[in-house]
Amino acid sequence: MSNLIIDVSVHLSDQSAKTAQADWDRPLLNRVHTKHTFGSDPISVDEQIKHMDVAGITAALLVATKVGRLGLKGSWRVDPEVVLAATKKYPNRFFGLVGIDPFTGMTGVKELEKYVVDHGFVGAHVVPHWFGMSPDDERLFPFYAKCLELDIPIQIHIGSALIHTPSQQLVSLASPNSLDEIAYTMPFLKMVATNSGWPWVEELVSASNKHENIYVVIDKHPVSNLGWPLLNYIQSWGTNRVLFGADFPSRKYEEVLDEIDSLNLPDKAKPRLFAQNAIDLYKLPF
Amino acid sequence: MIIDAVCNMFTPEIYRSRPEWTRKFHTQKMKVAGAVLDGVTISDHVQLLNQAGISQALLIAAKLGRRGLEDSWELDAATVAEACSAEPDVFKGLIGINPFDSVKGTKELEIFVKNYGFVGAHLYPHWFEEAPDSRIYYPFYAKCIELNVPIQMQVGRCQRYAHERPMRNVGFPAAIDRVACHFPELKLVGIHVGWPWTEEMISVADKHENVFIGIDAYAPKYLGDSLVNYINSWGMKKVIFGTDWPVIPFDRAVRETKELNLSQEAKDHLFYLNTQRIYGLV
Question: What is the CA radius of gyration of chain B?
Answer without folding.
Answer: 17
